[in-house]
Amino acid sequence: MSIQNLSIVMIVFNEADRLPTCLAAIPPGVELIVLDSDSTDRTVDIARAFGAKVSQRLFDNYAAQRNAALAMATREWVFSLDADERITPELAAQLGKLAEIPTEVSALTVPRSLVFMGRTMRFGRTQDEPLRIFRRNCGKFVNPIHETVMLSSGIARRAHGRLLHTSYRDLSDYLARLNRYTSAIAEQKPERVSWLHVLRPWQEFFTRYIGRLGFLDGYPGYTYAWLSSLYAYMKYAKRWEKTNCPPLLPPSSCEIRK
User: Fold this and answer.
1) Which residue of 55, 67, 155, 233 sits 20 to 30 Å from the alpha carbon of 9, by its own alpha carbon?
2) CATH code for 6-165?
3) Closest by CA position to 131, among listed 59, 184, 78, 170
4) Domain coordinates of the chain in residue numbers?
5) pTM for the whole thing?
6) What is the DSSP letter of 17?
């Protein structure tokens, strides 16, 4: 099966460890666009070995980067794919039938399952359904962080098959991203934090672990629920810090007292 009406667009940075598994699952015939941000590993070499059209762009924010990659695509349909994702055979089969989709449908949402601590998660709010496949002239990315596709026309339907999402290499990677993302959110929204926000981390844990049956995913489910609550805590703590704590004065302006 060769797919001639689809461009897969990717933004990457130092993904040499995960990129081969991702690209190996892509069905033949697609136009593969890879926009790199000056990777220092073998990311670019790997992408070219799989036949990708590779370009470079200095990263500024996620939406702008994805729109730049989107502008390089030439085919009717585009699929925004990440290096930490893998197309399942069922989803690949649907990609071969894009020409059969009615003209009023301009996009497909794609069910996605998180792979965490070696386990394909089923519970604990670890499943999502992002809009990733759309007609090239009908969508663009918005929001600098947690970017999403905004459609200019048409409707979206649900794709068959799913993506497997190995979002985090390990727990250290999760914590590094948590720190980076919560800092960016605090910069965007330095609003005041009320005492009601103190309850949000606990709500996050119990919703995922008890309400959404995360305990059925074993120890990975327990760990993910706690880390999600930590994310909520740090997000509001950094907002509070940004709003209530004055910036430190540079050393040259401080009076040193003995």
Assistant:
1) 155
2) 3.90.550.10
3) 78
4) 6-165, 171-244
5) 0.81
6) T
User: Is residue 163 within 8 Å of 127, Cβ to Cβ?
Assistant: no
Give the per-residue pLDDT at 2: 66
What single letter denotes the amino acid at residue 160? H
Q: Which of 31, 32, 232 is nearest to 224 (CA)?
A: 232
Instruction: Tell me if residue 157 falls in helix, strand or coil.
Output: strand
Describe the crossing of helices 171-188 and 218-244 by its angle, rounded to 10 degrees: 30
Distance of CA 89 to the CA centre of its chain: 21
pLDDT tens per residue across span 62-115: 999 999 999 999 999 999 999 999 999 999 999 999 999 999 999 999 999 999
Structure tokens that stand for 123 in this block: 């519970």
Residue 187 and residue 95: Cα distance in Å, rounded?
A: 39
Q: Which of 129, 115, 84 is nearest to 220 (CA)?
A: 115
pLDDT score of 254: 42
Residue appearing with tokens 């689809």: 6
The phi and psi torsions of 156 (rounded to 5 degrees) equal -110, 145
Two tokens, residue 223: 């760990």
